[in-house]
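Give me structure tokens for this 80-residue protein.
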Amino acid sequence: TKTEDIFPIRCNIQPWMGAYCAVVDNPYHDVTENDGVYRIEGLPAGQYTVEAWHERLGTLSAEVSIEAHGETTADFTFKR
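Here you go.
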């Protein structure tokens, strides 16, 4: 695997059971809640590219700017 990669984990007995494992080389990531809300905390001020990944719909990205002690929002809408 690369320093950042997503790979599937499958069950050989029950094929509907599975998961995905994301390997990242930084502490800045989150998994969405059931309603799609996520929060990435502790980012230093600066410019960032935020990526959202869906197992069937791919990856979306957004550029965000974080100011010192600031907060910003990046919303993603996946389309089928």
